[in-house]
Write a structure and sequence with these properties.
Among the domains are: 163 residues, Leucine-rich repeat, LRR (right-handed beta-alpha superhelix); 92 residues, Leucine-rich repeat, LRR (right-handed beta-alpha superhelix); 271 residues, Leucine-rich repeat, LRR (right-handed beta-alpha superhelix), CATH 3.80.10.10. Helix 7 packs across helix 8. By secondary structure, it is α/β, with parallel strands linked by helices. The protein is 13% helix and 20% strand. The N and C termini lie far apart (94 Å). The strands form eight sheets. The protein has a 31-stranded mixed beta sheet, with no helix packed on it. It has a seven-stranded parallel beta sheet with strand order 29-31-33-35-37-39-41, with no helix packed on it. Belongs to the RLP family. Keywords: Cell membrane, Glycoprotein, Leucine-rich repeat, Membrane, Receptor, Repeat, Signal, Transmembrane, Transmembrane helix. It is found in: Cell membrane. Its main location: membrane.
Length: 976
């Protein structure tokens, strides 16, 4: 007995020693797998800090690497370095706030996936998603027989290898958002253990039999094929497809499917609980299909072509009592009131955004409702009293962009679970008091912008909530800066532009311990000096700060290093820009310091700002030479140095030529020839007016095919207008362009019209006789102004090829010869000024074809002959033709001898006086007799009235049918 126990004790001891020894060695990864990882690292393009831990002997301790505790083999590789956190559609969010951390992580991996990854034969989990990987998936990846999870989403991989079909244990495959172009999906049929498949945002347009391929995956439970350009389903092939008993989640959003897709959906699974068919072409014929989908809990049908009355659809849902999510937004339902949703007793999320709902806001009892979106409709009347018993679970409420009026009910402050409230862009008025916000302790987003609401809060009030975003533009927060914001320690978005604040910008603002991503306090009357403590505010890399259109003064303060867009225009900042260069945010992309009182020379420090895309220093008192370092900005799109006192030569901008589109150096004292600037062959706008530019216009101007606006007026340019000017294709096109002119902010959490979104560049031109500023889309604007120079020679015939021109000004030069006969080709001209030259000969008769002409000035030339006539030309008086001694005919007093002057539709004043009384008397009597005889008869004779309106309806229906048939024919003919 004793010897037996001793034997077992010795065996147990030896086994423990062996296991501890094995465990000790298991901490070290296999050498061949370590070398494979190092080779894989060499194939990546990465920042030093990303894979900096990949050194040393034990690869199991490297970042993103996991090993088996016993064997030491690499079993998991997790290298997801997402640059941003995706903010999901708020219709899908219920209890959680989107995490707004933008570009807060390390940079993504680039390069290719090296085939050495296939040496990790024990790998069961591989995640390389959210990177910038390109090329092919290694074909040998099919040898990783133990792989169960493969995630390669959000890369630039360009092909799917059939070798994936060898992954017999694969359960999870995510290839979303790559550059795949596939012609078949037959390889999927070999993945017999697959449960989850996401091929969204790839090009599967050539996969005709995709339904058959999907049906061969026996145990698939989740399928995502969003935005794949999938072809329509052939109804004849559906009967040959086996129905799945496992598929529960199906998402086919954004494929332009028509209603025939429902026949496949109804056949592919009988246990669907989640169905997403949003962003397709489904019409009202699908209404009966939902009688068969009785297991549904979440249904997304937004952005389709559903019509009829919204209330017609509700009784068809056999799963009404179990449905938790219903999204019908962006469908053109026939205008009707908000239907009763009480039958959907389990409903948690309902989105009816932009569904043409009219009338008052009334709602049934939905005890589980957490998210309600009724924005972008036509709801009117006052806001109802929010009964806590009906909305006790409400987290998300969006009533923005309606026509709701009246005051805000106090009961809204009783919705204690609310974290999102948007009532922006309505017609609400009155006060917002502490009682309105009394119990909203969970409130994160408050959007009351674009109303006539006034915040009436005590200065010492402490809010019960910690806001993440406040949108209150065009409300009244002032006159003092709202002190209650001092307590908001989690604020990330602050939009309080045009809120009547007339106060000094507070010192305490810089002490807010939050990650401010967006600040907009523009269009108030803030005064004083911006505190230096602003530089200590934590920001995300893509932060936008807008202090424009205030009365802020003093020198430019330091700003946080990660500010992305900075708007300081239209204030009273003074001093030198050099201080900004010393403490400026190096990541700034859009910098607007225009319309201030900045003085002195520009520092030569701009090479530090390699992210800069838009620089606006216009309307200051800056002087000296333009620094050479501005030519080193290789990403710059727009430079505004206009309306300053710069002198000397323009530096070389050759390094900017691939990106620079907009150059405005107008109204300075620059002395230069045009040769340097005309090397920028991607320019859209070139404005140099009001300088001392000398020399001739080189023919290289004609190589800037993208040029739409050319303003060289008020300089010292000599020589002739190049004959090749008609080669500029952008001005020869009647189409509208907006390339590179329109810029977008990157502010997060953009909820409808909250004041955050896109901003446009601006352009000043002497337009129709006065200085005008174009701020919105001006890609349509195509203009040439070379006035007030010393040009000689003739107007080139080729200029009439620029048929897209809206504006042409060649005045105040020494041009001679004739006006080209084909001038009538410039059919889009609205303003034409050829005055104060030495032009002679007749005005071409083709001028009568300029139907949009609003400004015409041919004065102070040597033109002769008859003034042409035409519907638009007849609107100009003699000021358009003065000091042309040889001209005759109306509107001039000189009559042409021997010429017959055609009638111009002008009535002399004396004739007008004679005819006015008789004419208006007869007109009035005729109207009364006609009105009484027609309308009176229709009122008295009911049979005539019915016949008349029936005829009107019949004719209108006939015209509608004719138009619809014609459009359909055209679409078939041109395959639209």
């Amino acid at each position: 007995m004793f010897s037996s126990r001793l034997y077992h004790f010795c065996v147990a001891t030896i086994l423990c020693i062996f296991l501890s020894h094995a465990s000790f060695h298991a901490e070290m990864c296999a050498e061949i797998e370590k070398q494979a990882l190092l080779k894989l690292k060499e194939g990546f393009v990465h920042e030093t800090e990303l894979l900096s831990s990949w050194n040393g002997d034990d690869c199991c301790k490297w970042k993103g690497v996991s090993c088996n505790n016993l064997t030491g083999h690499v079993t998991s590789l997790h290298l997801t370095f997402s640059n941003f956190t995706k903010v999901e559609d708020l219709n899908y969010l219920v209890d959680t706030m989107p995490v707004m951390e933008f570009f807060s992580g390390p940079r993504a991996l680039g390069g290719r996936i090296d085939s050495s990854i296939c040496e990790l034969q024990h790998l069961s989990f591989l995640d390389l998603s959210h990177n910038d990987l390109v090329g092919e998936i290694p074909k040998c990846i099919g040898s990783l027989g133990q792989l169960t999870h493969l995630k390669l989403a959000w890369n630039g991989l360009n092909s799917v290898s059939d070798a994936l079909s060898n992954l017999s244990n694969l359960q999870y495959l995510d290839l979303e958002k790559n550059d795949f172009v596939a012609s078949d999906l037959n390889w999927l049929s070999h993945l017999s253990t697959l449960r989850y498949l996401d091929l969204s945002n790839n090009n599967l347009g050539a996969v005709i039999d995709w339904p058959s391929s999907i049906s061969k995956i026996p145990f698939l439970s989740e399928l995502y094929l969003n935005d794949c350009r999938l072809p329509q389903v052939n109804p004849k092939s559906i009967s040959h497809i086996n129905s799945s008993t496992f598929l529960q989640i199906l998402s086919l959003s954004g494929n332009n499917f028509d209603s025939s897709i429902l026949s496949w959906v109804l056949n592919v699974s009988k246990v669907l609980t989640v169905l997403d068919l949003s962003h397709n072409e489904l019409d009202g014929s699908i209404i009966m299909s939902f009688n068969s989908l009785c297991q549904l809990k979440k249904l997304y049908l937004g952005s389709n072509k559903l019509s009829d009355q919204l209330s017609d659809y509700l009784p068809e849902f056999c799963s009404a009592k179990d449905l938790e999510v219903l999204n019908l937004d962006h469908n053109s339902f026939v205008n009707g009131s908000l239907p009763d949703f009480s039958m959907f007793s389990s409903l948690e999320r309902l989105s009816l955004q932009n569904t043409s709902i009219v009338g008052p806001l009334s709602f049934g009892h939905l005890p589980r409702l957490k998210a309600l979106d009724l924005s972008l409709n036509y709801l009117s009347g006052s806001l109802p009293v929010f009964e806590v018993t009906k909305f006790s679970s409400l987290h998300f409420l969006d009533l923005s962009h309606n026509k709701l009026s009246g005051t805000l009910p106090y009961t809204i402050g009783q919705l204690s679970n609310l974290w999102f409230l948007s009532i922006s862009s309505n017609e609400l008025n009155g006060n917002i008091s502490e009682e309105h916000l009394l119990k909203l302790s969970g409130l994160k987003i408050l959007d009351v912008s674009q109303n006539s609401l006034s915040f009436n809060l005590n200065s010492d009030w402490v809010p019960p909530f910690q806001l993440v975003g406040l949108y209150a533009s065009s409300c009244i927060l002032g006159p003092q800066f709202p002190m209650w914001l001092k307590q908001q320690r989690k604020l990330q978005v602050l939009q309080i532009s045009n809120t009547h604040i007339m106060d000094v910008f507070p010192e305490w603002f810089g002490d807010i311990s939050s990650s401010l991503l967006y600040i907009n306090v523009s269009r108030n009357k803030l005064s004083g000096v911006l505190p230096k403590s602003l530089s200590g505010i934590k920001t995300g890399i893509l932060s936008t700060w807008d202090f424009s259109f205030n009365n802020l003064s003093g020198p430019l303060p330091p700003f946080p290093p990660k500010v992305y867009e900075l708007f300081l225009s239209n204030n009273m900042f003074r001093g030198f820009v050099s201080s900004f260069c010393e403490t400026s945010p190096l990541s700034v992309t859009y910098l607007d310091l225009s319309s201030n009182a900045l003085t002195g020379p520009l520092p030569n420090c701009w090479q530090k700002f390699q992210n800069l895309e838009v620089l606006n220093l216009a309307n200051n008192s800056l002087s000296g030479r333009v620094p050479e370092s501005l030519g080193n900005l290789q990403r710059i799109s727009a430079m505004h140095l206009n309306s300053n006192n710069f002198s000397g030569e323009i530096p070389s901008l050759t390094l900017c030529k691939s990106s620079l589109r907009f150059v405005d150096f107008g109204d300075n004292n620059l002395e230069e020839t045009l040769k340097t600037l005309l090397e920028l062959d991607h320019l859209v706008v070139l404005r140099l007016r009001g300088n001392r530019i000398r020399g001739s216009i080189p023919t290289s101007l004609c190589n800037i095919l993208s040029l739409q606006v050319l303003d060289l007026s008020s300089n010292n340019i000599t020589g002739e207008i190049p004959q090749c000017i008609g080669d500029i294709s952008a001005m020869s096109d009647n189409g509208f362009e907006d390339e590179t002119i329109f810029y977008g902010t990157s502010a997060p959490l953009i909820f409808h019209d909250s004041g955050i979104g896109f901003f446009s560049d601006k352009l000043s031109l002497t337009w129709k006789g006065r200085n005008s500023e174009f701020r919105r889309f001006f890609g349509f604007l195509k203009a040439i102004d070379i006035s007030n120079n010393h040009l000689t020679g003739e107007i080139p015939q080729s200029i009439t090829s620029l048929v897209g021109l809206f504006f042409l000004n060649l005045s105040r030069n020494n041009l001679t010869a004739f006006i080209p006969d084909s001038f009538g080709r410039l059919v889009n001209l609205e303003s034409l000024d050829l005055s104060r030259n030495h032009l002679h000969g007749r005005i071409p008769s083709s001028f009568s074809q300029l139907h949009f002409l609003m400004v015409l000035n041919l004065s102070f030339n040597n033109l002769t002959g008859l003034v042409p006539v035409g519907p638009q030309l007849d609107t100009f008086d003699n000021s358009s033709y003065v000091e042309n001694i040889g001209l005759c005919g109306l509107p001039l007093e000189n009559q042409c001898p021997g010429d017959v002057i055609p009638p111009r539709g002008r009535v002399e004043k004396n004739e007008d006086k004679v005819l006015s009384f008789e004419f208006y008397l007869s007109l009035g009597l005729g109207f009364c007799v006609g009105f009484c005889s027609v309308c009176g008869t229709l009122i008295v004779k009911s049979s005539w009235r019915r016949a008349y309106f029936q005829l009107f309806i019949t004719v209108s229906d006939w015209m509608y049918v004719i138009v619809v048939v014609f459009i359909a024919r055209m679409k078939r003919r041109f395959r639209i």
